[in-house]
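Posting for a labmate who doesn't have an account.
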Amino acid sequence: MKHYFIVSLCIIFSFGTLNGVHTGSGIMTFDTVPGWGLDENGKSQIGSCHGSIVIDKAGNIYTSANKGLFVFKPDGTLVRTHIQEDLMEMHDMEIREEFGVEYIYAARNKGGIGIKFHAQTAQIVLTLGFPKESGLDIDVLKPTAITVAENGDIFLSDGYGSSKIFKFDKTGKYLKHFGGPGDGLKEFHTPHGMTLDTRYDSHRLLICDRNHQPIGRLLHYDLEGNFIQVAASNLSWPTSVAIQGDYVSVPSLEGRLSILDKRNAVVSVLGYNADPGEDVGGWYRVKQEDWKEGIFHGTHGSYWDKNGNLYIQDWNIDGRIMKLVRVK
């Protein structure tokens, strides 16, 4: 990972507002889609966001904003919303089909809980709070990430709190916890994002240790909470991870999204923001009138569709969702 800026130099060419811009390099080159998800007046429809993106098997795009859940078609048309108290401030989401029904699992900043709800109806079917049986001296969780193993076990990261990861079975029964705060090899300094890494025969957890010094790394743990390896380092505030095939997309708060291959080498960088005055510490204050096509700010969530296109959310005061179409 030491050659991060050399190996994966971002290429951006402007082709004008109508055609978007070219970003990335090699086999991971994309064209942006200007105005995706905006209303008929060209305004954002979701409002302030600090969340995530998932896509259902029909191709609908779900994104979480501070005031609830928004669902779009691939062309950017808003098809439904769930503006309700129990879906506010979902920081991270994963989608999973169970017995023919699609459910979304979410880590909620508001309320300090993990939830599972029906993707179509938004009906909540499971809530995960702080497990008192863990014996830890914690009043409330401050979760930032959630993921689910093939057998239904649920992993909830207390990224803004204890820097521990809690494991539950599919019914919500507490099983164990692991990790803890620090900058040591097997410690977490804000385990901010997490997913099930399906790129290997034995699935494992891929964890964004966002604030670890030197700043930002990805870690592999097995599903029993045992450290495997540092998968990548020096990624500058990595916020979340999304897998497709042998590749993983990794948004960064410093205004870019890196794509890593199965060796966890960076192969492309999208939306690179070269102005640190715009992103670090001020990304969420960037208003819509200051957005630049093909330039990211506080990049927070991402997800791949079945065609290899990417949907990306900036942590943004007005609510920015971007679609990038992969160049064949």
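Reply:
Got it, the structure tokens are right above this. Residues 4-7 form the longest helix (4 residues).
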